[in-house]
Structures are given as structure tokens and as C-alpha cells.
Specification:
170 residues, mainly alpha
């Protein structure tokens, strides 16, 4: 990817293009993983850290999963920091706030029921479902973002889907 090579070479305009290209998925990732109102700050910090770490980025690796891994780590840091300050705040933002209604083909009731069931999943299962289906990452990208082996992604996704099938009626 030429733009990435230019950014690694110190071209700040090229890095700006990368930011514009990946900012929407980075923000969705932060929100879905629980950043809530801090999502913009999390994404900004993640892009700053990614820029500083570009020199160590393996050129044969995919940029998006690498960036989203940084976003996931920054989201965890923000959640830990927030919980130390106050337990009163809701940790996760409502998932339906960021879904595009124009892209939705499921009725509002069905979507609300499904999102409620996803929110009720244990955290590892909620995270894997979020990455695979809400962020539309493939298994390998999900593994990179969550820092899990690919087999763990498969098994947790399987358990999560089984649980959702039982919870959400057809």
C-alpha cells in the first residue's frame, strides 16, 4: 500500500489520508467495545499511538487490524480509567445508536431484541460477536484486534451464536 509507505516515510499528509480512511471503523470499534462518550478521545489517542509506532509496523501486515488492535487497547484503558473514577457511568454505549437505519433490514423490534441479547452475552462472547458481525471483521482480523488465537475466536463465536439462537426466537 503506497499510502502506508509514504506515511511510514514521514509524510504527514499520507498519514492524514489513512486517518480519514480508517476513522469511521476506528470509532465504531471504540463505541462497540465500550468507550461510550470517550470514543472520540480513544480514537484520537489510538491514531497518535499508531503514528508513533509506524516505524515498527511490519509492512507485510494489514494496517486495519493493527490499528483496530490499538483502538481496542485504548478502549480498555479508557474503561479502566473511567471505572476507577466512577462506577456510576454506563460502560457500554447502546449499540443501536451507531447502526445506520438505512442499512437495517430487520424490524426495529427484532433489532432491539437482538441487540439486547448481544449486550447480555458474557464479555468475551460479546466482543467476538461485535467484531465479526457489527464491525464486519474476518476471523483473522478479529483475532488480531482482540489479541486472541484464531481458534479462540472460532470457539467463542460458536458459543455466542448458540446462546443467541436460544435467546432470540426466529
Amino acid at each position: 500500500m503506497a499510502i502506508l509507505a509514504r506515511a511510514r516515510g514521514g509524510d504527514s499528509a499520507a498519514y492524514g489520508e489513512l486517518v480519514l480512511r480508517h476513522a469511521p471503523i476506528a470509532k465504531r470499534t471504540a463505541v462497540f467495545l465500550g468507550a461510550g462518550a470517550d470514543a472520540d478521545d480513544v480514537v484520537q489517542e489510538a491514531f497518535v499511538k499508531a503514528y508513533r509506532a509506524l516505524g515498527g509496523f511490519r509492512s507485510e501486515a494489514a494496517f486495519r487490524p493493527w490499528l483496530l488492535r490499538i483502538v481496542a487497547n485504548e478502549t480498555r484503558n479508557a474503561i479502566r480509567s473511567r471505572s476507577r473514577r466512577s462506577r456510576r457511568e454506563e460502560i457500554a454505549a447502546p449499540l443501536d445508536v451507531v447502526l445506520d437505519p438505512a442499512d437495517e433490514t430487520v424490524s426495529l423490534e427484532r433489532r432491539a431484541e437482538l441487540l439486547s441479547a448481544v449486550r447480555a452475552l458474557p464479555e468475551p462472547q460479546r466482543l467476538v460477536v461485535t467484531c465479526r458481525y457489527l464491525l464486519e471483521l474476518d476471523e483473522q482480523e478479529t483475532a488480531v484486534v482482540l489479541g486472541w488465537p484464531r481458534g479462540t475466536v472460532k470457539s467463542r463465536l460458536h458459543r455466542a451464536l448458540e446462546r443467541l439462537r436460544k435467546e432470540v426466537r426466529p
